Every structure is written in structure tokens, then in C-alpha cells.
């Protein structure tokens, strides 16, 4: 979590979920972020008709990113006009570090 938040100045907050949807870490209240993260994952999967590897939603107020790597997922909120490619790259890099060292979860 610390690495991810330090990598992106545009990041407002995020949650890391395991394959069961349990929140492992969040930048704010764990229960609230877990519920929001699971909802976002479910919405992205429903829209695609299958589990998504990544999704990006932009609104007038900000951006939301969903990235999955193996059994983990990150749902992150960022400032409006955050560079989507860079955000997904940073999130994926942090997730890959987590996958390499699962005991850190």
C-alpha cells in the first residue's frame, strides 16, 4: 500500500483485495473501501460479462481504476485527468510485487 501511494501523486485512495474479496489493506477505513472495491469489481465484471484484468471509469469528479493480478485486485480512485496508462502501470507493478511476496499480504 505504501509503495502504491508513493508512486502516484494523483492517487486519492485504494484498496487491495484478495481472490475472495477480502480487503488486505486500504488507504482509508478498511470496511468502507472493501465494500466499494467489491462493488466496483462486480460492476466491471458484469459490464464485461467475465472477470476483467483491468477497467477504468472517468467521471467529472475523478477516475477509478480496477487492476487484477493473479488472485489479487486493486481498486483505486484518482484525481480527474490522471494518466490512465501510468496509473494502471503503477498499480500493476505494485500488485506484481505483492504476488512475488504473498506473505506480505
Feature tags:
105 residues, alpha+beta, Beta-Lactamase, 5-stranded antiparallel sheet, 3 helices, 5 strands, 29% strand
Structural description of this entry:
With 105 residues, this protein is an alpha+beta fold. The chain has one domain: Beta-Lactamase, CATH 3.30.450.30. It has 3 helices and 5 strands, in the order αββαβββα. It has helices spanning 2-7, 30-48, 84-100; strands at 11-17, 23-26, 54-58, 63-69, 72-78. The protein has a 5-stranded antiparallel β-sheet with strand order 2-1-5-4-3, sandwiched between helices. Strand 1 (11-17) and strand 2 form a beta hairpin. The protein starts with a helix and ends in a 5-residue tail after the last helix. The model has no long low-confidence stretch (mean pLDDT 89).
Brief sketch in words of this structure:
With 105 residues, the chain is α+β, with helices and mostly antiparallel strands. It has three helices and five strands, in the order αββαβββα.
Q: Which secondary structure elements does this structure contain, and how are they paired or packed?
A:
Elements: H1 2-7, E1 11-17, E2 23-26, H2 30-48, E3 54-58, E4 63-69, E5 72-78, H3 84-100
Antiparallel strand pairs: 1-2, 1-5, 3-4, 4-5
Distance between the first and last residues' Cα: 10 Å
Shape summary? globular
Q: How many structural units, i.e. domains?
A: 1
Number of strands: 5
Supply Rg: 12 Å
Mean pLDDT level: 89
Order of helices and strands: HEEHEEEH
According to CATH, the homologous superfamily is: Dynein light chain 2a, cytoplasmic
The main sheet orders its strands as 2-1-5-4-3
Overall structural class, as computed from helix and strand content, comes to alpha+beta
β-strand amount: 25-35%
What portion of residues is helical? 40-55%
CATH A-level architecture: 2-Layer Sandwich
What is the fold-level CATH name, i.e. the topology? Beta-Lactamase
Oligomer: single chain
Major beta sheet, specifics?
5 strands, antiparallel
The tally of helices reads 3
CATH class: Alpha Beta
Amino acid at each position: 500500500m505504501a509503495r502504491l501511494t508513493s508512486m502516484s501523486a494523483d492517487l486519492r485512495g485504494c484498496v487491495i483485495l484478495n481472490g475472495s474479496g477480502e480487503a488486505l489493506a486500504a488507504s482509508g477505513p478498511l470496511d468502507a473501501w472493501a465494500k466499494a472495491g467489491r462493488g466496483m469489481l462486480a460492476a466491471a465484471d458484469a459490464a464485461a460479462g467475465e472477470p476483467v484484468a483491468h477497467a477504468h471509469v472517468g467521471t467529472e469528479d475523478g477516475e477509478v481504476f480496477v487492476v487484477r493480478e493473479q488472485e489479487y485486485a486493486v481498486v483505486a480512485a484518482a484525481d480527474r485527468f490522471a494518466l490512465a496508462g501510468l496509473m494502471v502501470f503503477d498499480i500493476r507493478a505494485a500488485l506484481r510485487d505483492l504476488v512475488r511476496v504473498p506473505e506480505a499480504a
